[in-house]
Amino acid sequence: MINEDINESELLMLYREEDEEIKNLVYLKYKPIIDILINKYRSYLKKLKIDFQEVYSECAVGFSDALRNFQEEKDSSLKTFITLCVERRILGLIRKYNRGKYKNLKDMYSLDFSIDDDGSVLLDLISDDGELDPLKNITSNEEYNELLARIKNKFTEKEFEVFSLMYEGFDYLAIAKILEKSPKQIDNTIQRIKVKLKEIIKNVD
């Protein structure tokens, strides 16, 4: 068992000696950080059907990266740096699965998903005071898939990536973190998405 009084410098020295037993003990000491981060993103990981064994493997890589690259003179604290590295791996995994999932547009089966904290769905926000029934002319799966194809063709690659994350229930702050952009950039992208969707759906034949 690792002495709780051991400082970060000594801990790093022990870890970098490549002793597997010591490495396991260090991992167990900081594992609560990993558990907290996985729990933070659990609902999104489940939505994307990501195997939690893969999630833990990614976290282990992030943890190893943190211990290997931590520099006391540059980084604020080891715990903070571990959190940063592990969270980055989780977000990268979410980004990878999200991109892969929507390569097939048939997987995106409904535009009736929540986009705001007040429970508003996307179709509410792109309709004109209830006068527009955006899907009134959609009568088959083929027509719906055609609509989705129009959406993807109209959107830039980044806009579609943001749109697909919105579809999974991420708010603009979470999307900003996942895509490593500023919240303002993501908010602007979402506004463009709403305008484009409104235009596309209004022109549904």
Distinctive features:
elongated, Rna Polymerase Sigma Factor, Chain: A, 205 residues, 10 helices, mainly alpha, 2 domains
How much is the average pLDDT?
77
Helix proportion of residues, in percent? Answer: 55-70%
Total count of domains: 2
Q: How many runs of DSSP E, i.e. beta strands?
A: 0
Inertia-based shape: elongated
Helix-strand string: HHHHHHHHHH
Output the structural class: mainly alpha
What's the alpha carbon Rg, rounded to whole Å? 22 Å
Write the layout of secondary structure elements.
Elements: H1 8-15, H2 20-40, H3 42-47, H4 52-69, H5 78-101, H6 122-126, H7 141-154, H8 157-167, H9 172-179, H10 183-202
Helix pairs in contact: 2-5, 4-5, 7-10, 8-10, 9-10
Account of the 3D structure:
The protein has helices at residues 8-15, 20-40, 42-47, 52-69, 78-101, 122-126, 141-154, 157-167, 172-179, 183-202. It is mainly alpha-helical. The protein has two domains: 8-101, Rna Polymerase Sigma Factor, Chain: A (Orthogonal Bundle); 105-202, no CATH class. Helix 4 packs antiparallel against helix 5 (78-101). The N and C termini lie far apart (69 Å).
In short:
The chain is mostly helical.
